Amino acid sequence: MAATVTQPEDVHDVRELLGLRTTAATALVAAYVVTFAVVASATYPAGGIWAEIAAWLTVSIGAVALIRAPGDPLPLIWTGYLTVAGPIAVSLVLAVVPVPIDGLLQLWPIAASTAIYTYMCVRGRTLWAWAGMVAVVASCMVWAEMTGQSAAYGLSMSAINLAPVAMSTFFALTIRPAARDIFALRRETIARAAAEAADLAVLDERDRQLARLDQLARPLLQRLTGSEPLSEQDHRACALLEAHLRDSLRAPALTVPQVVSAARAARSRGVEVVLLDDNGLDTAIDTARARVLAAVADVLEHAESGTLTIRILPPRRLALATIVHSTPDGIARLEYGHDGRLTAPN
After folding, report:
1. What is the pTM of this model?
2. Contact 93, 86 (CB under 8 A)
């Protein structure tokens, strides 16, 4: 019996370690989206509603992608989107805000972009995050210069947002190497658990086989150790037991109750039964397997003499199983296809 240990498909995804796939992370992103929707709707200038909506959609899609996009580091297609999302959102809003601005909340895309770039660092795209953040600062400086407020003013109102990106950079430099170690330990743990499960399965199977052998062979062994001579019936029982144990080794796929009992009955009638298994049933569909086993049992039940050779063929052969019945009257051969149906009766 084989034991399996299921390994998570995304065992190397940093989202698992940081909890980015949890309900709490989803709630946080939802709060992000709602918060900036409220800020945008409360601060948009006259005639600037569409620019505000476009900027809000841009950063909202980016926030969702940060927790939903699979892979580590973040896939390039989403990395590119997030990198340009900040300067695009900032530029859209700066294009419609009054000069001078009425309040700092009107510059909400700067804060929204900063949040995106901090998480980009954590997701393995630190250089891209810095490129996006620098582009945001540059957008503010260009806007300020073009509106006669000087580039220094644009720098002063946006440069403070470089600090969170710097902190997230140091955090990423710490947590990501630790994440690699954690993932390595997890792989070792999974491999160890799989090995232990396989060892336990082997031991369990051995114990079952020993118990089965004890049940089958003990009565005959006790009879053999007795002082009374063996009868013809005892010899026959020993032969049948030997044949059954041989079948369990040479044809494990055929050692099901219906075939075992039919083979024993056929041998009791004097039929020589040879069972062979080359593992074709291991990959067969359930219906085909059931049909072949039923056909084998049926042939065994109706055989009265001769030699009956039943073989499960190796995988990828044209046929799934063959049954050859040799009698003084001739040889009959049956073949069963991979659907378990009779294909070539002779």
Report:
1. 0.55
2. no
